[in-house]
Amino acid sequence: MPVLVMKFGGTSVATPDRIKRAAKRVGLEVSKGYDVIVIVSAMSGKTNELVGWVNETSPMYDAREYDAVVSSGENVTAGLMAMTLQEMSVPARSWQGWQVPLLTSSIHSAARIEEIPTHNILAKFSEGMRVAVVAGFQGISQEDRITTLGRGGSDTTAVAFAAAFSADRCDIYTDVDGVYTTDPRIAENARKLNKISFEEMLELASLGAKVLQTRSVELAMRYKVKLRVLSSFDEPSEDAGTLVCHEEEIMESNVVSGIAYSRDEAKMTLVSVADRPGIAAAIFGHLSDAGVNVDMIIQNIAEDGRTDMTFSCPTEQVMRAERALQEGSSKLHVNFQQLIADTNVAKISAVGIGMRSQSGVAAKMFKTLSDEGINIKVIATSEIKISVLIDRKYMELAVQALHDVFELEKTP
Ligand code: ADP
Ligand code: ASP
Ligand code: MG
User: If 0-12 CB within 10 Å is exposed, 13-18 middle and 19+ buried, where does residue 238 land?
Assistant: First the structure.
C-alpha cells in the first residue's frame, strides 16, 4: 500500500478534541487506501513547560536528562492519538522513538537522525495495522540514551520518515494554512504562497521562520520528499497549503519571496583584538568547538595593528560564547580588551532566488530601513538573501516596511 506521512504540530493536538479532529483527517487518508505514519508534537506549550522545569531544577543540567524530560510531551500525544484512532476502528498503535528505533547521533538537544530501520513498522502494516503513530522530536543514541532533535524537531522526524518509507507525500499540519511571504502574525497583508522553492524555504527557516525546522527542509531537498504545509483546521482539499518544491516547478515569483525575522539574536563585539594572521581562525575555531553557532561576522579596519571583531549568535548561546572566549584568551593568546554582548537586537532578512539576477535589492532594503529611522548594526548577504541586525524594538516595523516596499502582498 502507498504510504503517507502526516505530521501534527502542537496546536493541532492541543486537546483531546483537537486530537479527534486530526484523527478524522488521518481516517480519511486511510479510507483512500494509504498506510499512514502520523508524527505528533507535544500539546502546544508542553515542551516550554518541560524546559522550564528543567531550568528550575538544574540550571547547568545534564543534557541527557534534559532530553529524557523534554521528549516526554510527545509520548503523551502519541498514545492519545493511537487510542483515538482505535476508538474510530482504525487499527493503530503508538511508537516512541526508541521503539522504532529512530537512531540518532549523541549530541543531546540537537541530535541528528542517522537511520530509521523500516522493518518493525512495515511488519505491523503487513499484519493489518493501518496507522503508525510516532512520537516526533525524539530518538535514541548509540549509548541507548533518549535524544531530541532541537526545537521544532518533529518536522524533521516527519520528513525523515517520509524519506525512509518512500512516502507519496509528507503533509505538515500546523496552525497556519501554509507558508506566507512573512509571519502572518506580524504582517496582516502577508500572502500565502502556493509554492515555494526548497532553496528559499531553507533560507527562510534558517533565518527564523519557524513554520518548518531548517533540517526538515534540508532532508526533503536531499531525498526528494514531496513536502506540503497546511492547516489542520481547514476543510480537507487536494490543493490546500503550500508545496515546497524545486525551483523549476515555480513559474513566476517576486524578486523577494519572503521576509524572515529572528528575535533571538545577540551581537558580540571583541574590542581591540590583534590584527595578525590566524586570529580569526583561533577565535571562530574556539567558538565552534564550544558549540556556538556564529552567523554574521564583521571585522573593522585595523589601526595600530589592532581591530574590532563583531559576530552574531543565538541569544541563548551568549554565556557559552563568553566562556569560550575568556578561556580562548588565555589558551590561544587571543587577547582582546573587552567583550561586549548586545542582546537587544533582532535579525531581519529578505530572501528570494530572484536576487541572483536582479541588482538593487540591498540598496532598496537599506533605504527603506533608513526612511523608518532604523539603524543597521550588521549586514550579511548571500546569493539569495540579505540580513541585517537592528534594535529589537523596531523588529515588527522593519518586517512590515520591507514587506510593503517589496510589494509581497501582490501576486507576481
Ligand atoms: P507547529 O506547532 O505546528 O509546529 P510552529 O509554531 O512551529 O507550529 O510554526 C507555525 C508558526 O510559524 C505560525 O503560527 C507562524 O506564526 C510562524 N511563521 C513564521 N514565519 C512564517 C511564514 N513565513 N509563514 C507561515 N508561518 C510562519
Ligand atoms: N515539541 C517540540 C518543540 O516544541 C518539537 C516540535 O513540536 O516540533 O520544539
Ligand atoms: Mg514547529
Answer: exposed
